[in-house]
Amino acid sequence: MEVKMTVAYWIVAGLLALTYLASGGIKIVLPAEKLLAMWPWTGDLRLRTVRLIGTLEVLGALGLVLPRLTGIAEWLSVVAAVGLVVVPLGGLALHVRRGEGSQTVPNVVLAVLAAVAAWLGAATL
């Protein structure tokens, strides 16, 4: 059973890591104008806040994968997953405040997947 849970962790963590590396990387490197064209919500926040969110996403993605790959402080993968539950919940609140109900679905899905990764990560330590 633990092998199946480990495989499940890597699938969920891998998908989350790829998603957050891409999303976070974009938030870190693109100029404000391009971010605004891509994601109108970024206009509601300071650029440094958007960059901070991107940095947290990239760090969370790395935290899901690197501790498990290296075998060093593997519990950090659970901490990273819990952190990645919080990030989309903030996005959910922002979209609700902006009246963008259709934009909340990806945030809910990402929060649930991160919670699953946290659970699987804790169960396979």
Regarding quaternary structure, what we see is single chain
- Low-pLDDT runs of 5+ residues are none
Structural class computed from helices and strand pairing: mainly alpha
Please report the number of helical segments: 5
Q: What would you report as the Rg, rounded to the nearest angstrom?
A: 15 Å
End-to-end Cα distance, whole Å, is: 13 Å
Q: Using DSSP, what is the number of strands? A: 0
> Can you summarize the main beta sheet?
none
Can you describe this structure?
The chain has 125 residues and is mainly alpha-helical. Helices cover 82% and strands 0% of the residues. It is built from 5 helices and no strands. It has helices at residues 2-29, 32-38, 47-70, 75-97, 104-123. Helix 3 (47-70) packs antiparallel against helix 4 (75-97) and helix 4 packs antiparallel against helix 5 (104-123). The longest helix is centred in the first third of the chain and has 28 residues, at 2-29. The chain is elongated and about 45 Å long. The two termini are 13 Å apart. The mean pLDDT is 97.
Main attributes?
single chain, 125 residues, mainly alpha, 82% helix, elongated
Task: Summarize it.
By secondary structure, the protein is mainly alpha-helical. It has helices spanning 2-29, 32-38, 47-70, 75-97, 104-123.
